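Weekly sync, protein design subgroup
Attendees: M.S., D.O., the rotation student, P.L. (late)

Item 1: inverse folding check
M.S. brought a backbone from last month's batch and wanted to see whether the design step gives back something sensible before we order anything. D.O. pointed out we never logged the input encoding, so this time it goes straight into the notes. C-alpha cells as presented (483 positions):
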C-alpha cells in the first residue's frame, strides 16, 4: 500500500469512526501517528473549505434577500408618496419653512411638491442647477437621465459635478450630491441615452419632464413623447451669453413641433463645445426651469406656456416673446395627429442625438485628407502649404497645429469678409490649401464655400483635415490639448 493510499484510508476512517477510534486500527500496523496527524490536517482543511462554501452561500442568499427588501421598500415608498402623504414631518417643516411661509406655497403646496415626480433629462449645464433647486424645494421623486460621464470641461458650469467625480457617470455624480443635500427625497438614476425605444417607458414614470439636453434630435423625441403621454415639458437652452426658456404642451399651449415643424439644417446648429457658454448663463436658465416646474406642480399662475423667455446675459436683459398658439395641423399634438408613435429622430433631424462625435459628411473623400497623411506629407517634410484654421480667435489662441497657420474664423469665410485676402494669397503663392477646425465639421463647411470661389479662379480646391484637432490629438500628438 502506498503512502497516499494509506492517507486516503485514514481519512476514510476518521470520517467513518472519528479521530479517537482510528487508534483502534493502529494494531493493523497500517497506520502510524505521523500519518494520522497528516490526515487530521487534511481533514481540517477540507472542513474549512466546506465552511467557506457554506458562508459564501449564506452571503449570496442574504444579498438576494436584501435586494428584494430594497425593491419592496422602494415600491412601498412610491405608493406611500403618491397616496398617503397627508402631513409633513418635523424635519420637513424646518427644512422647507422659508418657502412654506410663502402665500403661493403653504403646507398644502409643500405636500404637492412632496407627492410630485420630475424627470430631468440631461445632467449638464442646465440639468445640474434645475435638479439642485428641485431637490432643495423637496420634490418627492427626482429622476436624472444622462448617458455621459463627467469631464474636466464640464466643471465650470455643471455645478453638481466636482473634481472628485470626473470620470464617474453624471447621473451618479448628481445623485451623490443631491442625496447629501436632501435625504428626505428619492433620487432615481437612468444611466442611458434616451431613445425612441426607451423614452415612453421612462417618461411615463414621472409627472413633469425637464429638457436639459443639448441637441435637436432629443428635443423632438422629448416633445413627441411628452405629447403622447400628456406630460408638460419644461424646455431650456443656453449658449454663449444667451439663454431661452419655455414650457411646451401645457394646458392647451403649443408643443415644440407646433413652432418648429421641421428641424434646422445640421450645419446651422452650434453646441456649447463649439460656440462656448458661460456657466452663470446655464445657471440662470436651469434655475428658471426648476421654477417653472414648481409652478406647474403647484398649479400656480404665470407658467411660461405660449411664451418664450429670452435672456441676454451681456445686457442683463430678459424679454418675453408671445409664441404662436398651438397649430391646428401639428403632426403630433393636433386633434388628428399624423404622428402617433415615436420615430427615428436622428434620421428626421439628420443629426445625432448626442453631441459626441457628431461627424458631418459634407465632402467627397477626395476633398479631404486624414491627419496622418497631412502630418506625414506636409508637417514632417516641411513642404510649403497654407493651413487655414477656421476656429474663433480665442480658440486659435488656446492651441494651434505645428507650422504656420492663418486664422480666418468660419463666419468670416461664409460672409466673404476675408475670402478675397485668401484668394489673393493663393493666386500669388500657388500653395495648396488645407482647412482645419476643432472636430472637422466647420472645416468642411468652409471647404465647400471656398471650393466654389477657387473654381471661379481656376485654383485647385482646398481640402479639409478629417476630424480636426481632436483627430490630431488622438492620432498624432497625445499631448495636444483637447477641449
Ligand atoms: N438623448 C440623450 N440621452 C441622454 N442624455 C442626453 C441626451 N442628449 C443629451 N444628453 C445629455 O444632456 C447633457 C447636456 O448638457 P451640456 O450640453 O451642458 O453637457 P455636455 O454635453 O457635457 O457639454 P459639452 O458640449 O461642453 O461637452 C449632457 O450631459 C448630455 O450627455
Ligand atoms: Zn404641436
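Designed sequence read out in the meeting:
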Amino acid at each position: 500500500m502506498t503512502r497516499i493510499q494509506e492517507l486516503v484510508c485514514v481519512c476514510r476512517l476518521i470520517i467513518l469512526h472519528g479521530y479517537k477510534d482510528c487508534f483502534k486500527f493502529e494494531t493493523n500496523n497500517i497506520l502510524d501517528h505521523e500519518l494520522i496527524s497528516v490526515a487530521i490536517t487534511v481533514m481540517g482543511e477540507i472542513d474549512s473549505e466546506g465552511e467557506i462554501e457554506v458562508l459564501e452561500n449564506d452571503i449570496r442568499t442574504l444579498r438576494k434577500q436584501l435586494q428584494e427588501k430594497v425593491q419592496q421598500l422602494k415600491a412601498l415608498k412610491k405608493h406611500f408618496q403618491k397616496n398617503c402623504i397627508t402631513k409633513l414631518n418635523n424635519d420637513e417643516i424646518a427644512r422647507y419653512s422659508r418657502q412654506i411661509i410663502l402665500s403661493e406655497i403653504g403646507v398644502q403646496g409643500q405636500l404637492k411638491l412632496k407627492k410630485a415626480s420630475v424627470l430631468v433629462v440631461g445632467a449638464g449645464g442646465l440639468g445640474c442647477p434645475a435638479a439642485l433647486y428641485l431637490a432643495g424645494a423637496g420634490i418627492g421623486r427626482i429622476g436624472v437621465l444622462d448617458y455621459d460621464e463627467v469631464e474636466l470641461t464640464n466643471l465650470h458650469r455643471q455645478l453638481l459635478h466636482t473634481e472628485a467625480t470626473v470620470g464617474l457617470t453624471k447621473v451618479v455624480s448628481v445623485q451623490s450630491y443631491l442625496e447629501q443635500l436632501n435625504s428626505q427625497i428619492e433620487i432615481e438614476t437612468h444611466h442611458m441615452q434616451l431613445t425612441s425605444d426607451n423614452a415612453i417607458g421612462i417618461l411615463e414614470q414621472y409627472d413633469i419632464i425637464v429638457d436639459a439636453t443639448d441637441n435637436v434630435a432629443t428635443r423632438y423625441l422629448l416633445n413627441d413623447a411628452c405629447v403622447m403621454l400628456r406630460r408638460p415639458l419644461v424646455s431650456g437652452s443656453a449658449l454663449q451669453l444667451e439663454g431661452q426658456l419655455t414650457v411646451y404642451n401645457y394646458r392647451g399651449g403649443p408643443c415644440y413641433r407646433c413652432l418648429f415643424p421641421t428641424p434646422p439644417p445640421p450645419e446651422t446648429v452650434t453646441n456649447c463645445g463649439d460656440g462656448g457658454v458661460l456657466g452663470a448663463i446655464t445657471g440662470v436658465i436651469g434655475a428658471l426651469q426648476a421654477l417653472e416646474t414648481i409652478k406647474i406642480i403647484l398649479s400656480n399662475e404665470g407658467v411660461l406656456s405660449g411664451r418664450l423667455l429670452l435672456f441676454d446675459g451681456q445686457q442683463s436683459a430678459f424679454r418675453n416673446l408671445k409664441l404662436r398658439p398651438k397649430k391646428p395641423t401639428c403632426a403630433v399634438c393636433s386633434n388628428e395627429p399624423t404622428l402617433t408613435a415615436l420615430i427615428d429622430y436622428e434620421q428626421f433631424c439628420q443629426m445625432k442625438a448626442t453631441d459626441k462625435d457628431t461627424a458631418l459628411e459634407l465632402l467627397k473623400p477626395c476633398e479631404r485628407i486624414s491627419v496622418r497623411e497631412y502630418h506625414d506629407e506636409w508637417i514632417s517634410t516641411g513642404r510649403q502649404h497654407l493651413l487655414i484654421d477656421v476656429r474663433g480667435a480665442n480658440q486659435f489662441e488656446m492651441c494651434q497645429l505645428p507650422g504656420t497657420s492663418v486664422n480666418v474664423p468660419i463666419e468670416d469665410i461664409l460672409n466673404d469678409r476675408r475670402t478675397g485676402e485668401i484668394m489673393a494669397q493663393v493666386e500669388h503663392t500657388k500653395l495648396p490649401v488645407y482647412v482645419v477646425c476643432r472636430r472637422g465639421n466647420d472645416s468642411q463647411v468652409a471647404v465647400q464655400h471656398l471650393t466654389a470661389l477657387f473654381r471661379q479662379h481656376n485654383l485647385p480646391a482646398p481640402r479639409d483635415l478629417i476630424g480636426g484637432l481632436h483627430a490630431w490629438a488622438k492620432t498624432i500628438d497625445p499631448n495636444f490639448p483637447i477641449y
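Discussion: Residues 122-125, 145-148, 153-154, 158, 170, 193-194, 213-215, 218, 271-273, 353-355 surround adenosine-5'-triphosphate (ligand 1) (CB under 6 Å). The mean pLDDT is 92.
Action: P.L. to compare against the previous round before Friday.
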